[in-house]
Fold:
Amino acid sequence: MAFETGRSPAVQITPRQRWSIAFSYMLIVIGLLLGVNQRDSLLNQTSLYSNNTAGISASYPARWLLDESQDNVFRIRDMSHLGFKTTIEVRSLPVGADGAERNLLDHLSLQRSQVFIDYSVLGYDTFRLPDDSQAVSMAYTFVSRHASPFLEGVSSVVNGLDILTIRRGQALVVSFRAESSQYERELQTFYRFIETLEF
Amino acid sequence: MNPRALKTGASVSIAVLLFLLLALSSAQGSLDLGLERIKRATVFVYQAETAGNSLIVTCISTGTLISADGLIITKANGVVPSQQCNGDNLIVSLNVDLAEPPIPKYRADIVTHDAGLDIALLRIARELDGRLVAQGELPVLPFVAVGNSDDVAIDDNLIVMGYPDIGNGPVAFSRGTVTAFLKEPLTGSRTWFKTRAEIPGTMAGGGAYNTAGELIGIPTNAPLAGSAAASNCRYLNDTNSDGLVNSSDRCVPTGDFISTIRPIALAQHLIRGARLGLNVDATLGVREAEPPRNPPLVSRLFVAPSVRGAMPSTVVGSLPSNTRNLYLFFDYDNFSAETVYELRVTRDGIPDTTFSLPPVRWSGGERGLWYIGAREQAWANGAYEFTLLVNGAGVGAQKIIIGGGAEDRAHFSDIVFGTLDQAGNLIGNGSIVPLGNIAFARFLHANMAAGRPWSAIWYYAGAEFARTSDAWSDDAFGSKVISVDPAGGLLPGEYRLELYLDGALSATSDFYVAGEQGSPLPRIFSNLRFTSADSLAEARNGSSASSYPSSIPALFALFDWQRITAGTPWTASWLVDDQEFFRYTQPWLAQESGTDFAFVLPDPPDGNYQLQLLVNELLLLEQSAVVGIGQLPIDRFAEIQGTILTGRVIDAATQQGIPSLTIVLISENFDASEFVWNQEQVVALATTDRNGEFQFARPLAFDTPYSVVIEAEGYIPNFADVFDFDPNQTSVDITIEMVRG
Structure:
């Protein structure tokens, strides 16, 4: 058996076809851009929280669970997160005549050391609020464990950051907590939240 | 694609899946599920002593969760620090896997206890490492319903649940029947249930349940202190640090097999107080009773066919056939809540386990007249011998013959005390006589023949002070009144009258002289009032009122007293909304007369409070006060009905469980599309463990349309509406698949 080999003639693309291909590529790019834009807008979509009694308002990520039932002014949690649910918590504390920011942060640490596993303060710093006023911050870490005693819960290492400022005889503490491995990435969400916070 | 469209598509699949799985799971029998719930609510408790950096187990008990927020009922002996069990930590092991031993998970604090009843209420308060459980962080725990032990009848079936080993085996239960009720001078109609169920000593403190699965009693025992030979004892720790665990180490007492159950009715006030977080402080200005210094004594054993108040109606040496009531009386002294006592009964020389009482804690205070017996139960004919043992040693015995026909023997009975009115009638309550010059006693007599010698002996504080002996000159049947008028008048304190026929004790009764003459009752307590204050000093100077606003810091109750001598037993009973939550029975320890005896109840919730003052179980004075709206708040977790929803969330592609994913259960007032991620819309949250398993530990209401929402990074959101349970579904297990997207 013998085989014949040869070369097929070159295919000539018509201008119409060339435009069609270019147009298809453009549609794909536009679609991708729209998709990215849609995704970003979904991810960055926010809800407005407003508490006239406490005089606090802020924009927080949409689809985070808002909880006003605790002792805090309010708490929001990203329930879609696997592992420790990234949390932002805002609460006010009474301030004594002799109380300074550092006293209040130490008081928080004492309380947390009673309930947080392996709670440890990492350090203190200053923090500039959107209105250019100065606040103090405290970074800390602890271990979060699944609460149900009947399941094989896993522990997560959590990093936290408190921003504390005293206004009109009340201290406002804004706390951010995220799983250690996600902390730096999630911190941007917290900063965006702080930017919108009014009190 | 629009996220909402994605969710809609996914929801169809999960809704179908949920309904299929719910339908399948409903086929399980509710009885088994009830038993499973009881098992899950049964905990194992270690009492441990801190020794350097380690914990040494000192005692062990079974316990039972009776509320979703971690309230545990168990026996006091084993958790309350004592000579035998001197640990300072209580470790609670939960029943995570029903087929496996319990796992230590938490630490508990003692909320309240009654050493005599041998019942304690614990509350889970700390994580295993000693940290406080954060507010709202304790999951809703499985618990059992508390039933009514007064409804239990002889031959009723019961189940006793507990841990038959020393924490190294799974929970188990014994089936049995109630064989007898034993009665002692405690409130309530039954002091003990007797059963032939095989109950190992380590199951003491667990639960006895009726066929409805309700807790009706606590099996208790009292291993003897320091006597490994006399009772079952296990060696768990190297307590002497010699590198070996052997008989040189201190053992953990477990006790022998149990046949007695303490009815839950006797602990209802403790349970109520613990549930409501009501802790009355009764120690304001009161000195502590000193423990007895001398060894326990028992004397004057005799048998009576019936009881009047806490006193014998008459004294008998034999009883006829078909006897259904029998009580063994005895005097006791130098007893304490640490005292272990036991009654061994033989009939014709053969042990009678039905009416015997195995070693139990003493509940009667330091001294007095006590009885133990049974009413409305068949006593077979035979020669009975009752032997009392205290701390393992025999202290007295009494014999009686049951059989033959009823005899028309001469006897005295039913002694009551009081004073005479102007018409010559005996007035008073029968057991308390006000101060005066003369006390009267009335008793019944039967089959008396003229000339028969009889005598009456009067005692004050244990010493004879008057005696009359005479020949009988009254009718054969009837009642007779006698009196005593000691020189210098009646002093406040405890009195006794003994009536003898032919030199044999025929009837006896005790009474107290206290207080001023009142109408109709002696006036011992007065000026009972409530006040709200921050301190006792402020309360004593404050004005009283009958209603107070919500959130007062403390509710004080104060009263004055007159002419009550030290040692007179008295009781203060606190009630809220007509339910007793605190009962304080002690010998009187204060001065003979005085003012402003105080109780304090910190942080009382809204309710209608009442304080009753009693002497010898006789109500002498009561007062009430309203706080807030005058009604207790409703406990939304107290409802046991509902479905326990458990399940697993898996990756649809890999079929592997997805860990740390949260499932949101939405209130029936919203469907999933209306969910705006507000906690107010959420009924419960559950998070998967490392295997993807989850559990909504809180029971979910029947016939209520819940919605479920699951959002997880890397997966298409899932939701389902109209997710309800019918009343047959006490437990439901589902599997949810998540699709990557």
